Amino acid sequence: MLADKKVCFLGAGAMAEAVLAGMLNKRIVKPGAVSITNRSDRFRLDELVYNFGVVADANQKDSSIQDADILILAMKPKDVHSALEEIRHLTNPNQLVISVVAGITTSFISSLLGHHAPVIRTMPNTSATIGLSATGICQGETATDEHLELAKHIFESIGMVVVVEEGQLDAVTGLSGSGPAYIYYLVEAMQAGAVKAGLEEHTARELILQTLIGAAHMLIETGEDPAALREKVTSPNGTTQAGLDKLRSYQFEEALVSCILRATERSKELGALLSESKS
Ligand SMILES: NC(=O)c1ccc[n+]([C@@H]2O[C@H](COP(=O)([O-])OP(=O)(O)OC[C@H]3O[C@@H](n4cnc5c(N)ncnc54)[C@H](OP(=O)(O)O)[C@@H]3O)[C@@H](O)[C@H]2O)c1
């Protein structure tokens, strides 16, 4: 699918590296067909050339952008405006533009480019670095289903992908974009409880991680509703019931629902601020 395509990354940070590594590990593109550019950090480009064998010559930045079939935007949201202003004359409507930049809409990217190149917007998460991202993707106005499939193929190299409407991407950000941090917080809290209950920290951690993995696999492999699985392991007046009652008394469910709604709202607020400050 990508065999004959040239890909150019604009931005060479952690997320660019995760996507690059995924694409190369899954062999969906050859290192020589990938170029990577940034604003000024030449040491970082040398590191990526050394580690991945990709093309990253600061002197060839313009031609790398001009010759690319696919441009991947991977700079911080605050840098999108200046980055696209700087390179818009090197881009054309036949290039596919894929963005991993949080909060920047496909229409805003099109307006900065000044033409109708197809734009696909994505929201991966940090687990991309180990190939286990949960990524939401959506298509901009001029992107076709074929463009979407191509982007999906790229992001499946760093985990699983769900296709959503652009209006749902803030909810994806609030759920799976920020989600790893919620799980880390859960692990911290379970660990604190386990230590108080008398376990060594490292023993608690091992047990918690295996419990998380086991529960996730149970959900995936049985396909059962989480409430049904929960009920199956909850005997009346047993230990699980006692623990769950305590969670309910602290409004566990309400806390998590509010967490996801607030993070979704914050994603909308940040997106609006970014579009406002640049228009
Ligand atoms: N990290 C995550 O888990 C995650 C998850 C979802 C989405 N994202 C999105 O991914 C994007 C990148 O995040 P990151 O963590 O990889 O950031 P990062 O490590 O700070 O990297 C940002 C990169 O952008 C480059 N850059 C800045 N201005 C540029 C310009 N004008 N032209 C070309 N490149 C430019 C920087 O180059 P210099 O170093 O030379 O300045 C740097 O290589 C963000 O928009 C973020 O919203 C990240």
Structural features, described:
By secondary structure, the chain is of the alpha/beta class. It folds into two domains: 7-167, Rossmann fold, CATH 3.40.50.720; 179-261, ProC C-terminal domain-like fold, CATH 1.10.3730. 54% of the residues lie in helices and 12% in strands. It has twelve helices and seven strands. A seven-stranded mixed beta sheet has the order 2-1-3-4-5-6-7, with helices on both faces. 33% of the residues are buried. NADP nicotinamide-adenine-dinucleotide phosphate (NAP) is lined by residues 10-16, 37-41, 44, 74-77, 79, 82-83, 86, 100-102, 123-126, 177.
In the CATH scheme, the class of the largest domain would be Alpha Beta
Strand count, sense and closure of the main sheet? 7 strands, mixed
Radius of gyration: 22 Å
Q: How much of the sequence is in beta strands? A: 5-15%
Instruction: Report the CATH topology name of the largest domain.
Output: Rossmann fold
Discrete helix count? 12
Number of separate domains: 2
Report the count of strand segments. 7
Mean pLDDT: 95
Ions, cofactors and other bound molecules: NADP nicotinamide-adenine-dinucleotide phosphate
- Note the gap between the termini: 36 Å
Q: Which CATH architecture of the largest domain would you pick?
A: 3-Layer(aba) Sandwich
Classify the helix fraction into a percent range: 40-55%
What is the succession of H and E elements? EHEHHEHEHEEHEHHHHHH
